[in-house]
Amino acid sequence: MRVLVAEDEQDLADLVATGLRRHAMAVDVVYDGTAASERLAVHDYDVLVLDRDLPGVHGDQICQDLVGVGARTRILMLTAAASVPERVAGLGLGADDYLPKPFDYSELVARVQALGRRSQAPVPPTLRRHGIVMDTQRLQVTRDGRFLRLSLKEYAVLEVLMRADGAVVSAERLLESAWDEHTDPFTTVVRVIISRLRAKLGDPPCVHTVPGAGYVL
């Protein structure tokens, strides 16, 4: 899942991003509305965690712009404006969810995960393919009953492949879904993670390379 955190309190923004990354999410961080608008114009995010009162482009305007173009990005407003009228106004702008500060971190993670599921084609919380069972709530994977110790990045790549349900996934899409904007698009990280996944998944091989197209489970 690809997430953008737009929050002008830098310590809070970095803390939120670090925590979301621990749940196998690829997270970019910006500290003002102008930068948020620029990132949203370039990347296809699943979820936007949006501080409403951003400097530069206001959070309300960012929300309205996303809704206006029909973007699939789900919006979680994260703001100190916590009164009922303010929440109603935020949701009326097109936000999908609203979480006032201060917040419980486990609730934030749960809300982001729920919005991420809504931004994609509906899938069950447990994915099953070729003897692989993935529990997307606990971030646990087994194959033929054998528990697999996957890194967060290996898990994220495998989840994209499993959600594709037999369709070919390009290396570019894997980079867009499982890595943040600081990753060099010409790097070999995708091949490295695919190689590690194959080794951990074992036999019979189930992750195949489609020359010139990408990978398929």
From TrEMBL:
One of its GO terms (biological process) is regulation of DNA-templated transcription. Keywords: DNA-binding, Phosphoprotein. Residues 124-217 form the OmpR/PhoB-type domain. The keyword Phosphoprotein applies. One of its GO terms (molecular function) is transcription cis-regulatory region binding. GO terms for cellular component: cytosol; protein-DNA complex. Residues 2-116 form the Response regulatory domain. It comes from the Bacteria. The modification 4-aspartylphosphate is found at D51. Residues 124-217 bind DNA. It holds the Pfam family Trans_reg_C. This is Transcriptional regulator. It comes from Kibdelosporangium phytohabitans.
